[in-house]
């Protein structure tokens, strides 16, 4: 079976199992070539609903988890989105697709939305940058500590974590616009998927969305 057919079937199965709500999420998963983001030895398994190793002791989440987080973000075209944990860049590409593509021109882009991603591991950041641009995704990647967020491009409409901190990272919450939200796993060992909305008065409202398993968010040590 060719990759595109395998990908379509995977999305159909996820939709049948009620794992995808939004059409923009389904279409993004149908479009992004997940195999191209994982090491060659995993190309053949890229369209099973499984996490996969991506090097540096890290793993890419299973597609259903990418779908759940992308749905919870309830993205609008033109949103500015912060991702913490670029990994191989796959989820960032899905987010970029769900948002719609951005203009090439930097000035125009700064007026608009887009995906900004922070990755701790410099090797993963370099290879994600390469894969993303090879496939035409305009995602900006910064090597650094996600606990700090990325103040330069704040405020963000949306933010999400692909690694689990013990508690929600304060700087990322502060970099949300009022009315924006952060989606991510929280906890050590047992983790809960949380969506936190920043209120107009600066306070935070949280909802929980079940138990999940992500790699831990690393602390500079
Ligand atoms: N969304 C990614 C999945 C990445 S796995 C993908 O589609 O491939 C989680 C990533 O979070 C790893 O790459 C890990 O290096 C990164 N990470 C862990 N702690 C971090 C931190 N403090 N700041 C930024 N990234 C971090």
UniProtKB/TrEMBL annotation:
One Pfam family it belongs to: PCMT
Gene Ontology cellular-component terms listed: cytoplasm
UniProt-recorded Gene Ontology molecular function terms: protein-L-isoaspartate (D-aspartate) O-methyltransferase activity
CDD domains linked: AdoMet_MTases (cd02440)
EC number: 2.1.1.77
Active site: 61
Enzyme's top EC category: transferase
Gene3D superfamilies named in the record: Vaccinia Virus protein VP39
GO BP field: methylation; protein repair
Keywords annotated in UniProt: Cytoplasm, Methyltransferase, S-adenosyl-L-methionine, Transferase
The reaction(s) this protein catalyses: [protein]-L-isoaspartate + S-adenosyl-L-methionine = [protein]-L-isoaspartate alpha-methyl ester + S-adenosyl-L-homocysteine
Annotated localization: Cytoplasm
Keyword Disulfide bond: no
Top-level lineage group: Archaea
UniProt entry tagged with the keyword S-adenosyl-L-methionine: yes
UniProt xrefs under HAMAP family: PIMT (MF_00090)
Function description: Catalyzes the methyl esterification of L-isoaspartyl residues in peptides and proteins that result from spontaneous decomposition of normal L-aspartyl and L-asparaginyl residues. It plays a role in the repair and/or degradation of damaged proteins.
PANTHER family for the chain: PROTEIN-L-ISOASPARTATE O-METHYLTRANSFERASE, PROTEIN-L-ISOASPARTATE(D-ASPARTATE) O-METHYLTRANSFERASE
Annotated family: Belongs to the methyltransferase superfamily. L-isoaspartyl/D-aspartyl protein methyltransferase family.
Name this protein carries in UniProt: Protein-L-isoaspartate O-methyltransferase
């Amino acid at each position: 079976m060719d990759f595109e057919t395998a990908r379509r079937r995977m999305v159909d199965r996820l939709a049948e199992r009620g794992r995808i709500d939004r059409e923009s999420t389904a279409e993004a998963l149908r479009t992004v070539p997940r195999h191209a983001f994982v090491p060659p030895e995993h190309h053949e398994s890229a369209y099973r609903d499984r996490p996969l190793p991506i090097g540096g002791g890290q793993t890419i989440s299973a597609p259903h988890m990418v779908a759940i987080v992308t749905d919870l973000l309830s993205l609008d075209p033109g949103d500015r989105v912060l991702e913490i944990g670029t990994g191989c860049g796959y989820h960032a590409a899905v987010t970029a697709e769900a948002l719609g593509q951005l203009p090439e021109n930097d000035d125009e882009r700064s007026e608009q939305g887009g995906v900004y991603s922070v990755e701790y591991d410099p090797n993963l950041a370099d290879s994600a940058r390469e894969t993303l641009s090879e496939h035409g995704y305009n995602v900006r990647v910064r090597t650094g500590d996600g606990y700090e967020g990325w103040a330069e491009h704040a405020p963000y409409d949306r933010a999400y974590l692909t690694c689990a901190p013990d508690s929600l990272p304060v700087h990322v919450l502060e970099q949300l616009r009022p009315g924006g939200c952060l989606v991510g796993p929280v906890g050590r060992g047992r983790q809960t998927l949380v969506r936190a909305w920043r209120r107009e008065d600066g306070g935070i409202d949280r909802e929980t969305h079940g138990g999940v398993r992500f790699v831990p968010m690393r602390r500079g040590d």
